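Class, carefully examine what follows:
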Amino acid sequence: MDIHEPWLVNKARVLEAVARDDQIIQSRKCQRPQPRFRPSCAPPPYLPCVTPLNGLRKAMLRDLFLEIHHRGVYVLVRTIEVIGKETAVTMLVEDEQKTAFHLSIYNQEPGALHETLRQGTVMIVKEPYLRSKATGEYAVCVDHLSDVIYLYRGDQRVPSLWRLEVSQQSDTAPRWEQVGNGLSKMGKYYNAMECYVNGLRVSTTESEAWSFKLNLALALIQTQQYDAAIKHLDSVPESFQLEKALFCVYQALYGLERYEECYEALKTIRIRGPSTVQVENEFTKVTSRLAEQRYGRYSFKDLQKEAESHDPPLLDRATYIGPVAVRAAGSRGRGLFTTNAVNAGDLLFCEKAFVHSSANTRDVQRRNGVLLLANSERNNVCMGEQAYLISLLAQKLYRNPSLAPIITGLYHGSYMTVDVTEIDGTPVVDTFLAERIITLNAFGCPLSSRKKYLRAIGIESDPQTGPFPFCGLWPTASYINNNCNPNAYRSFIGDMMIVRATKNLPPNAEITFNYFPTSDDNYDECLHRFDSWKFHCQCAICTDVQAAGKDAVSKRKALTDVINRLFRSPERLDANRVKNIIVSMEATYPRPASEVPRISVWNPQMALGRWYRDRKRPLEALDWMLRALESFGYVFDGDMARSGRSLVVQQWGVMDQALIGAWLFLADVYRDIGSEAAAQAIVYAKLSYQMCIGESETFDGRFGRSAAAEAAAA
């Protein structure tokens, strides 16, 4: 073929290259795969096609121009060969004029592509975008899921030249049902759906048609297309297998987490006929989900066990939204506010991730490395699980568009998307909107906050699941604004985020937590750490840093470095010198610690308290640990706490996992001096554990029954 345009390809040469690549892959199969980075460049954002197919004009591949969105047209192509599955699925395709092109499809469902994408697959690409890729190749690139239509072999839009002829004996309802059921048993649900659609086309009776609809709905449920499953079972006639159809609807509703409707569906099934063991088991399960959803009743011990045993750690639990509501937050846009008064430690909400991505080493190898998604327009890089999360979000919204309102209202900066949600009966999903929402709202997270804490303090040496973090999107949590002195704390168990109050809050108080670890020793970082969100933090800590000035903050950092060096040799430590340095550090803060926590002073004071206890000087140890807590913003009756007569927190300060150990340390020191305040210190240790880990059910088992008994007595 004589090629004039550089983006047209020679089919023979490409197929030869694919064969060589296959030989290389086969030769490497016995080698241990190593995680590697897979860079990809995001194109400038563009909107998905919102024109009905009958409003688009058919074009040929030779009609396309480089770096142009061909609005108002579509191309019809079929696959010659799949040639790559890196950041996109890239294939060699041709049109009806036998012009060959590279086609790269991004963000598609891997299972769907694995089954449906084969030699001869026919596709319609709406408003094609021809561009150069990071590899230097040219390809028609499809970024939006809704911009490509895969045609079943029996679809009348497939050109007669490409159409697979089916014999009259095979094109019957019983034959399509037999083949479809066989594919379903093999787990090939997308291929089975094609058979059921063809069977529905040739069915001759209402009973046959409803049988295909039921089988199609079951396959849709297996592929998590719950909206479509419910739609296919709308208005089931009484003469059909109503109980079976209702149970299928129940399964789809459960997948959409619509537990109230699940409960009603199961009640109807029980009323209509004798119940089965399966129905009763599901009734018990959905009753548990409703208890979680309505009242926040969880067995957190069970959640911890399930998170450790499930891979990926996607837990079958409901979301509980407690005494909180989304409201306007002035210049901060929207925020989350209390609806009732709450106390420190109270559960505000426990939310299941809308999408969650977890990469252990096996996942990284299966994906052929770690994705690096560079965005030149915003000058940032999205890496690893956060990059995969974009595709997961787009896929979930495409499968179940009824869930879109939960997500599309989240903060997405100045990006303007389309206001069309469906075209030709197919959901419209804007991948670039998904990217903005993930970039600005997703959270990195551990598998378990408890495991992370126990590893940090050296109690457990649980092996890491890989160097790449877990990541998720929790819609309710996304409304929480930043404050470096927050009043709430987030923790994780699998894909569940648990948020508890860390201070006593009145009604209508805005809930906040810190987007980054709180610090007050870097002036420039304080000014610019939130540039990605386009705001400057005006919390008390950041305001205090600015009021102190760059010189004072730099001095604070230098003094911290001096103390850290001194504590490297505790046996030769000059305690008086450390005290003087701490006094100098405190002088760099314009306001008292009860108003603005002194983050940098906390560690030196706590270290000095531990140093005194190691030398059997409990009263000095007690004084310095209480000072450390006061630097974090905690307020006590100082004389009562220091004498050991009582320990009562009058004001809660900054919450941090280190507080658990601090309270346990205080309990030990109070025991050293024979004070009953040790029991109250255990109560505060358990409460801090509950805030930081998300639950207190596992506290007693880890820190001993004696601690539990003291806490109960207090």
About this structure: The radius of gyration is 30 Å. The longest strand covers residues 73-85. The chain has 27 helices and 27 strands. The longest helix spans residues 277-295.
